[in-house]
Amino acid sequence: MTQTMTLLESIPERLGSTESWVEKGGVHWLSPVPLGVRELAAAMNDWKARFITITAYQLPADQGFRLEYHWDLDGQLLGFPFLLAGNSIESIYDICEAADWIEREIHEEYALDFTGREFEPLLMRAGDTPGVNLREEAK
Amino acid sequence: MSYKIPMGPYHPALEEPYKLDLICEGETVRDAKLHIGFNFRGIERLAETRNYIQVTALMERVCGICSNIHTLTLCQAMEQLTGLTPPPRAQYIRVVMAELERLHSHVLWAGIAAKLMGFKTMFMTCFELREKVMDVLQAISGNRVNYSMNRIGGVNRDIDDPMAVLAMIEQLEREMVRTVIPIFTTSRTATSRCAGVGILTNEKALSCGVVGPVARASGVPQDIRRAAPYAAYAEMDFEVPVQQDGDVRARLLVRALEIMESCKILRQALTKLPPGELNAGEEKLVFSTGTATSRVEAPRGEVMYSVSWKEGSKNPARVHVRTPTFAVMPAIRWMVMGARLADTPLIQASIDPCYSCTDR
Fold first, then answer.
1. Per the CATH hierarchy, to which homologous superfamily does domain B2-359 belong?
2. Low-confidence spans in chain B with pLDDT less than 70
3. Whose CB among B117, B134, B171, B325 lies 3.0–4.6 Å from B193's, allowing a Cys bridge?
4. What is the C-alpha to C-alpha distance for residues B90 and B75, in angstroms, rounded to an integer?
């Protein structure tokens, strides 16, 4: 077994989870994630995983949002879903520089706030309102 | 005293809109702020209103240069949701198209880089070579930009004459070895404009999460074709060129060497092209509920699609696209810090940016 696979297998336990990876749709999913997003980002940095992106989904009715954080560990695609009851989640930008633009994009698309950071417009032009693009209420 | 120089959104060196506010002291850039979004078309929102045939055509329009890669990534994700597996011949044709697109993209970039260096003869040479690649793409697909080759479960068209494509590959390889690579690696013009310019350190490349040739030019040996092979890449023998310097010259070298590796892959794929069907042959597709993710190594680096579907629905519930330039472009800030103002157009161009992809 390669070093990567050994590390991959040990990650759920090292994150404090009793669950195992579920391989589905091309991704190793760990759900529920046993710790906060900032602790997860710090752990991923320690294991030299490469941050790829965050994908946001608005859930039906008033169920809120799901944010899927993706990292790459030597070619293995990892996925960590976080459910948001409200409109905000902690930013990981200060821990993971690569998350800067995607946090700003999600803020503009869904009007979600990544707390602990300032926002500068990314895709939006002056005068536009966050959330007009992908948020259901605004469609 | 520092002052701000706005570059863009319509800059003579870069023919897509994007803006860079450069904070300068004298001729030296001290900091930079990037502004994108001028090409924003709301494609992810539009995708939610299109059926599986329409969405494939739509996503081909995300990028004008690597249009094939977008449909390939999307189709791979949708194949996971439909349970279809493309037949071996289709997998090989996907590799051929992807590598031809890489050649076209890299040679185009080499021409533009040459022009920005003030080396217009080389610009013409590269564009002549690129034209030959585009002729082959047209001969295979009937199109020069949006090839419409991929479908869920396979490809739409066959390669009728693989040997004719091979002849073009050999001609391109000869020109690369005889003219382009020696001039880019040894000429004083290229060296003086590129060596030590626009450095992205290995540490910064890792923390910014850059991908593709920009990452490989900063000593990060990642390539999805090798790390997580798709289509028929697991059966191909090729190297992943890596340079350590992290400057414009290193990016130039990585792409030049990748052209040679693409030729190597194309030769293997065309000579080993297996017989058989072009697609899985399903007339009506049934999507299961869930999310599928696919990654592909585009000419500019990793593209990732997440596609979410609800069973019984005609349209996807969500299509999220992470393009390579979206991951690479923030690193421009670190590349231009400390650089001469006059070098910034070339530094920006050295990431081979695609604003159309970035903005979507």
1. Cytochrome-c3 Hydrogenase, chain B (1.10.645.10)
2. 12-14
3. B117
4. 12
